[in-house]
Amino acid sequence: xxxxxxxQEAALALAYNLDDAIKIGGNYTPLLQxxxxxxxxxxxxxxxxxxxxxxxxGAGTSLAQAQLGAKICTLRALTLLxxxxxxxxxxxTIPRITVYVQSAADFTQQSEVADAASELLHSILGTxxxxxxSAVGVLQLPKNASVEIDLIASxx
Length: 156
Prior knowledge:
alpha+beta; CATH 3.30.1330.40; five-stranded mixed β-sheet; 3 helices; RidA family protein; RutC-like_sf; Endoribo_LPSP/chorism_mut-like
């Protein structure tokens, strides 16, 4: 099964439609290609006009909700890559992802939130989805999002 097919199945399993345009909120590009590297700007768990997972994780937002948010962010990033490349099969590696988690003062499971993104990348891209990563707790994120993810992809 191709990475594109696994992507479609993952999107259907989450039951979120990402067919619409990926909305950005400023004077930047959501994806920039420089040679064989593609830099995907930070993605929040927005579907259409709505950021679905908001608030501080550990204070009103659960770990499970944040993990769902991480999956939505990851699918948004993959959507941008697929639209740019024509196929996710062109991805050679994902050398790096950064996962930002809006965290309550005593929340320390940022890496478990990031695990949801890592697992989804690997399940869709196979070994090309293996990556290095950082999981960072922060006080606030844009639009009160619970999670934001950026990544770098390389193509052959």
